[in-house]
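Chapter review: from sequence to fold.
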Amino acid sequence: MIQFSSLISKIDKKMIKIYHNPRCGKSREGLAILEKSQQRFEIIKYLETPPTRVELGKIIEQLGIKPIELIRVKESVWVENFKNKNLSDSEVIDAMLAYPILMERPIVINGKQAVLGRPPEKIANILLKG
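The token string follows.
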């Protein structure tokens, strides 16, 4: 007999996730693309529920980018505290953990694939992959 919690865990790993900021126009556009797809997805409002270090590391790995490429370099927090500093990847991740607003958005994860929805139309590509 399959454990119910084990089944839920397997379903959760297959569900599409969007790291979303409702105040961001591009993030809202990305959410609209997911809604139109009629696929099940989970909305993670990452400013309210930031990813853990492990989750953020996995997201960066799935995106296939360096941590600095996920930074909103024009964000005032970055400009005031980090601009022109030579930070290691770990320090860039620390900055995003301390200030989640620094993360580019939306990020959509579908199985083992992830995409930064800039432009939001990139999200359609990941919906086909799963």
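Two observations follow directly from the output. The longest strand covers residues 16-20. The CA atoms of residues 56 and 93 lie 8 Å apart.
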